[in-house]
Design goal:
The chain is α/β, with parallel strands linked by helices. The protein has 2 domains: 1-30; 33-203, Glutaredoxin. The protein has 7 helices and 6 strands; from the N terminus they run αβαβαβαβββααα. The chain has helices at residues 2-24, 66-83, 99-106, 124-131, 172-176, 179-182, 200-203, and strands at residues 45-54, 87-94, 114-117, 142-152, 158-160, 164-170. The radius of gyration is 20 Å and the shape is globular.
Length: 204
């Protein structure tokens, strides 16, 4: 039995550096078929939010490959945002009137930081990011990336600046074909109240 114990001990010692690598770089050991988890993180500075708008009953939202494209996009944005010291976050707006349908649809993506469910085109995220505050093409699926400034005041409360729309992708083709614009997307964008939208040309 002693040689066997020695072999087991040697195997454990040999595995320590690999385990340390996975702990030091969580992304290497992560399930890239699901969204990265950002729950509970607090951040002061610039925040980047990926907003995914979809419906389980929308044929275009069920195109093969769309789910993995959205997940890959969020992983890449998460990596780049963290590399410059900013905070990534995610939101899914699923417009199904039946919450069971909405949750059943979005569950396959993993855990978004926020969920806005129901009310069809009167969903609060749809109103804000498509119809009212930041109007654009009202269609599903859509992905928006917005930035905002988060500050901590002396009494411990938060001050949050207005959202700036960095980009808007409409339809499965635009979302799936993200590689051309995701590379180099993260740049030093000014956080100001003067402009509601930042073009990709300005972001490079």
């Amino acid at each position: 039995m002693r040689p066997l114990k020695r072999i087991i001990a040697m195997a454990v010692v040999a595995a320590i550096p690999l385990l340390t690598l996975f702990v030091a770089i969580p992304e290497l050991g992560a399930d890239r078929t699901k969204l990265p988890r950002n729950h509970g993180e607090r951040h002061v500075g610039r925040e980047w939010q990926v907003i995914f708008v979809a419906s389980s009953h929308c044929p275009a939202c069920n195109v093969p490959g769309l789910r993995q494209a959205v997940v890959d996009m969020i992983w890449e944005l998460d990596r780049q945002v963290r590399s410059i010291g900013d905070k990534p976050t995610t939101l899914a707006a699923v417009t199904d009137d039946r919450h069971e349908d909405a949750i059943g649809f979005i569950r396959d993506y993993g855990e978004f930081d926020e969920l806005h469910l129901g009310r069809n085109w009167l969903n609060q995220s749809v109103l804000k990011y498509m119809l009212r505050d930041h109007p654009g093409t009202g269609a599903t699926p859509s992905v928006l990336i917005v930035t905002r400034a988060v500050e901590l005041t002396g009494d411990g409360s938060f001050m949050v600046g207005p959202d700036s729309v960095v980009t808007r992708l409409v339809g499965p083709t635009a979302i799936t074909d993200y590689s051309a614009w995701i590379r180099g997307l993260i740049a030093e964008l000014p956080l100001s109240d003067e402009s509601d939208s930042v073009s990709l040309a300005e972001s490079r």
